[in-house]
Amino acid sequence: MNLIQLPDRIALSEPIEFPQIEPISEGIHRPFWSVMIPTYNRTKLLVEALESVLAQDLGPDEMQIEVVDNCSPDVDVEALVKEVGKGRVSFYRRPFNAGQVGNWNTCINRARGHWIHILHDDDIVLPGFYSRLRSSLEKEPSVGAALCRYIYMDEEGHWQYLSELEMRTPGILSDWLERLGPGVIQCPAVVVKRSTYEKLGGFSLQLEYMFDMEMWMRIAVHYPFWYEPKPLACYRSLTSISGTSALFKSDVPVTSSYRLLVILQSYIPEKIAAKLIQIHTEKLRIFSIVVIRHNISQGNFTISLNQIKTLLKCDPSFRIIKGIVGSFIWGVKKSFTN
After folding, report:
1. Which of 23, 237, 297, 317 is 20 to 30 A off residue 33, Cα-Cα?
2. How much is the pLDDT for 148?
3. b/e map of 184-200 (b: 16 or more CB within 10 Å)?
């Protein structure tokens, strides 16, 4: 197998492990859905997320709805949840900030339902999300996760464009592990069976970025994915205020890309590993160049240079060097045309 070898300061510093998810104790009521909403310092957009769920509430017997606050210092999230939820939405505040990954794992551990939907506090679901997916999932007990087509919207909630159409009719996705890549899936469109998390573990604490993509790939190795082609969720692109925007100005997207490859190599079946690692190496190379080009386009030359240094330490291949040179030529041409 052709593995990616990383320098010590880029590679994972500890063995690859995934947080354990304990099964639900016997005797506890199990609704079909657990809608878990992780949040941090969010107000107006959290209200929109909650209202989109409450508009299709199936009742407490069939749907757990809970907001999990990552110890927000500036917002009284509990008061907001009480006002909007009117007693229907439960609330849990972490005693300390565990980071985004830690908070998502808290959501999984607190979920009682057979199926878990982690809905971030700035995204929404559209009418029919839960009923339509449930009707399919009850007929296909073999699947470990499901996703629907989704809509990209801007900060103000205006629809921009649709995600790619993966299949024209509902059903199990074929060759899904090969087709996954950066931006293929956004979280509001995904639901996961709790027993899947119990078997495979929670989100990796060794990734600051792409930890969700790693999870979807880990699931795809072990379980079929169901696909619903009707757009039933909206992903909000918060270009100016999101944590993702801040991460793009650091080395994190680059280092996480190559750490992701190391993690993938730990569990992809050997008979298909070489092919899949090659496919995903190319996808993550392209993604890293896109991040660098984005910073060049924004005039963040010091940031892009630091990212280039990190990328060359991770992957000093001809393709990367060619991509870097091409990005600078593109940036120079753009500056002259502007």
Report:
1. 237
2. 98
3. ebbbbbbbbbbebbeeb
